[in-house]
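INTERNAL AUDIT FORM
Audit reference: QA-55
Scope: verify that the stored structure record matches its stored sequence.
Auditor: D.O.
Record contents follow.
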Amino acid sequence: MSKFWENYPYITEELENIKTIIKDNVKSSEKEFDQAISPLVDAGGKMLRPAFLLLAAKFGEYDRDKMHNLGAAIEMMHMATLVHDDVVDDSKLRRGVETIQHKYSKEYAVYIGDFLFCQCFIMLSGFDYSTENLRDISKAISKICMGEIRQYNIRYLRNTSLKKYIKVISGKTAALFSISFYTGAKESKCSEKTSKLLGRVGYYIGMAFQIIDDLLDYSGDASKLGKNAQSDLVKGYYTLPLIYAMADDSKNEISDILDKSSLNDEDVKQITILVNKYRGIDKAQNLADKYTKKAFDYIEKLPECESKKIIKDITQKLLNRNS
């Protein structure tokens, strides 16, 4: 388990239980399958989405078993998207371990991702969740897929607009953050007002979180372009710092480099320098700050309780980071 939650041992304990539920629901009689999926489950990560769901649920009538099952389903949904993303991105590592697609095959990874999606919905059918919330979760999955489709459709476009980028990340990242908060609150019988407030908190955290991720790939030492940004550049995925920089690059210095049939280390180093020169990092940071402020504005509107204090604390940790 990540140390992210170390200041909140009871949340760590609940997340460990959610991980156990996930393991129980991905067991099979196929030894090879278990060997393939176990490292991904064990690696864990921060488990932000189920944690957000639990924190939101504590604003209402908290049913531990119900929320743990729902949190496990939400995390499995996220894991399924990661497995499929690794296939699309041809990634070698995920959470510090070899990806399923790299170790076994792309075909095997697609099957495992599909299996995780199916198990997710089987789990959701096992408790008395509201039809409305199940529909909202399904809509969130649709938004995630559409975000990925939009990102694919704008590959290599030098004039990608801020509006298009926002649509991409609102689906890829913010949708599942938002539905985790909202569903936790609704299933715990919170008022519609409180549930919607929590949903907006999740949305703005997700937007800022993704922009900061994209920003960190370009910040720091100009000689070291983040590995994610290097991969994105080669595949034609242009994130916000680069989008902003290209919009101000009247000399087309960045485009001239991107026109090359392949990019070497010197090329990507030069792109980093140019992104700084044309204030791509500063402008991306300003937008991240705006979404961060909105997240905190909505947090302040929440009812006073221990969960509110924790949400403020972890939002500060997530959105004010340098790695």
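Auditor finding: record pair retrieved intact. The mean pLDDT is 90.
Action required: none
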